[in-house]
Amino acid sequence: MQVYLVGGAVRDALLGRDVKERDYVVVGATPEQLISQGYQQVGKDFPVFLHPKSKEEYALARTERKQGQGYTGFICDFAPDVTLEQDLIRRDLTVNAIAQAQDGSLVDPFSGQQDLENRVLRHVSDAFSEDPLRILRVARFAARYHYLGFTIAPETQSLLTEMVKAGELSTLTAERVWLECEKSLSDGAFSEFLNVLASINGLHVISPELESKWGDELYHTFQARFDYANKLQINDTALLFSQITLSLSNDEIKTIASNIRLPNEVRDLALFSQTHQTTLSAEKPTSEAVFACFNQLDLWRRPERFEQVLKVLEISQHQPISCFESLTKAAKQARAVNPQQFIAQGIKGAEIKTALEQARLEVINSYFS
Hints:
Blueprint: E1 2-6, H1 8-15, E2 23-27, H2 31-36, E3 40-42, E4 48-50, E5 57-60, E6 63-66, E7 74-77, H3 84-88, E8 99-100, E9 106-107, H4 112-118, E10 120-121, H5 133-144, E11 151-152, H6 154-165, H7 174-187, H8 190-199, H9 208-213, H10 216-231, H11 237-241, H12 250-260, H13 264-281, H14 287-296, H15 303-317, H16 324-336, H17 340-344, H18 350-365
Parallel strand pairs: 2-5, 10-11
Antiparallel strand pairs: 1-2, 1-8, 3-4, 4-5, 6-7, 8-9
Helix pairs in contact: 5-7, 5-8, 8-10, 12-13, 13-15, 14-18, 16-18
InterPro entries: CCA_bact, NT_sf, PolA_pol_head_dom, PolyA_RNA-bd, tRNA_CCA-adding_enzyme
Domain Poly A polymerase head: 3-122
Organism: Pseudoalteromonas gelatinilytica
């Protein structure tokens, strides 16, 4: 039995990046052997095991053959005679198909090290096209390593374009598309991810409307926003995703939410930010507009929602909005108005709400006319 470190851990170590997780491949073993050593099998039909102490993943060397459509239609063969090279050839990119033996030596049958040096993302074999999820994975890797100068090999770019043209993206579940978006958002390079998808005519998997608007100007706008967010070390998914929806309509945002199953908090912040950006970004908003905004955001019970929208707008403008101080002070004082004070005055029923709203509006009037 031989154990090799594989995939992202090897790739990132060679690039000098922090290694966040380690995956291993085991050659020449059976499930029974690993289980007898205390490894815990993950699932019944997939040869992945958790180490008894480190809980890191150890997968038996395997081959795959396509059966059916989509990215789940594969049959795995994980017999003990499957070689390391047979396991590596089923991987997506050459830079992910490098293995490291326990003595530290590298096994690199597909010249992944050379592609790392040349900053090229290249598919390993024609089997790449059997898995449509790899379209999004390559876009994500290209975005993540863009700052290092990585580009997609021309032949891989052509293959991705052909896969998109053949409708492969339509076989992906909405949840899986969102997961890849979420991973790219956490990498801090979502504008690059979108740009890669646009370059292969695949941006419609997220938003046909965004694809129709795509161009250098929009790309650079998003790039500047994410650069600003990165400088502030902002990694909240909802705040970041809202940066690409500010230029869309409410209906278009709802379409995205339906297409890729946006989490409710991401969808809601995108809608709130789009709806209220004009009022909150204005140099001199009217008190009536500000009051309506506070009511619609339910500032009285959900002050954090208002704060999030302000942060979305700050990222989009690369600085706090012009009325930030006045808005935050008005919001704090208006929230402090207590309906109990009107009850103590003998006001009853529906008149309490009227008095409460009038008092809040008077507070806002002191900041905005």
